[in-house]
Design goal:
The chain folds into two domains: about 15-30 and about 90-235 and about 280-310, 3-Layer(aba) Sandwich (Rossmann fold), CATH 3.40.50.410; about 50-85, no CATH class. The protein is about 35% helix and about 20% strand. The protein has helices at about 15-20, 70-75, 110-130, 155-170, 185-195, 210-220, 235, 260-285, 300-315, and strands at about 50, 55-60, 80-85, 90-100, 135-140, 145-150, 200-205, 225-230, 245-250, 255, 290, 290-295. The strands form three sheets. Strands 4, 5, 6, 7, 8, 11 and 12 form a seven-stranded mixed sheet that branches. A three-stranded antiparallel sheet has the order 1-3-2. It has a two-stranded antiparallel ribbon with strand order 9-10. α3 runs antiparallel to α4 and α5 (about 185-195) runs parallel beside α6. The relative contact order is 0.15.
């Protein structure tokens, strides 16, 4: 299947995802040498695995290397513990990117599906520049396309190609053809692929978080570093007073009186509850949370969020 020309803001093409690598000059997402990553304010993003510099001891988890068991701590606590080290080699980085019909929407600068693809490409190029192994899962409500992590530009190009095909398919596929988000299934597959010490970046619709997905995120976070990137659109947070608004898909329709302040407040309250759910999950599991919106340029949002922890520590 050959990719069609991109429709700006609606779909994205491979040329745009290749061009994103030049934006790395404007922002540093991963650490270089011994310097800590700007993400350190949100998340302990240094790789932990086998290496030469001791980091910490934690409870042994299935999949850990038995050669790193700390027998003294194990004997004292009567529970298996393993040593963790700062890793000097490349780490596996897995991009989990949603491209479901729920993301095929936008009211300002572009569609959420396009923003999700741009975020994935930016982090993919950053990981490759950092000499990490890069792979990914592109998923919707029915299927999940997989590229195993490798330290290869071809691996990233393969992932971007699959991302472009999934993105452009949204413009022709009816919403009913791909129900749901498929997020729990993608997270389960990520757990099967990744070894302890890997980094996973979850780029998904803000509306996709449910109980099953939360459970899978908790399990994945026990083995890997994880960054959560929920994608939203300003219209999903604030309903304008614009009279009767009709929302429809292939299965149902809904008419809202946006002039009614009670309707607008209920709409905003639902958005606040979704945001709070992501925040509680991140805090509970100690994860980075980078919420992004189609309402502002990507780099502007990332720079503001990466600088925010530094400002709070200086205050």
């Amino acid at each position: 299947m050959h990719a069609s020309p991109a429709i700006p803001g609606v779909t994205i093409g491979l040329a745009e995802l290749l061009e994103i690598r030049h934006h790395l000059r404007q922002i540093q997402l991963f650490s270089k040498d011994e310097r800590r990553s700007p993400l350190i304010g949100l998340h302990q993003s240094r790789l932990r695995g086998r290496g030469v510099d001791f980091d910490q001891v934690r409870v042994y988890q299935p999949g850990d290397d038995v050669r790193t068991i700390d027998w003294r701590v194990t004997a004292r606590t009567r529970e298996p513990h393993t040593k963790l080290f700062h890793e000097e080699r490349e780490r596996p980085v897995l991009l989990l990117v949603e491209q479901s019909p729920a993301l095929f929407f936008g009211s300002v600068r572009g569609f959420k599906s396009v923003l999700a693809a741009e975020v994935a490409a930016l982090f993919g190029w950053a990981a490759l520049q950092h000499n990490d192994r890069i792979g990914g899962l592109v998923f919707d409500g029915q299927q999940c396309s997989e590229v195993r992590p490798r330290r290869s530009k071809q691996s990233l190009l393969q992932l971007l190609g699959r991302l472009v095909r999934a993105n452009q398919a949204l413009a022709s596929a009816p919403p009913a053809a791909s129900p749901g988000h498929g997020l729990p299934r993608a997270l389960r597959r990520a757990r099967e692929i990744l070894r302890p010490g890997s980094l996973a970046l979850l780029i998904a619709d803000e509306r996709s978080l449910d109980h099953a997905a939360e459970q899978q995120i908790d399990l994945l976070a026990q083995h890997c570093d994880l960054i959560l990137v929920p994608i939203s659109d300003p219209l999903e947070h604030h309903l304008p007073a614009a009279g009767l608004l009709r929302f429809a898909d292939a299965q149902c329709s809904l008419v809202l009186d946006s002039n009614d302040p009670r309707v607008r407040e209920a709409w905003q309250q639902q958005a606040r509850e979704r945001q709070a759910r992501w925040q509680r999950l991140a805090q509970k599991s100690g994860l980075a949370l980078l919420p992004l919106s189609t309402g502002r340029p990507l780099l502007e949002q990332l720079q503001a969020q990466l600088q925010a922890p530094q400002r709070s520590r200086q205050a």
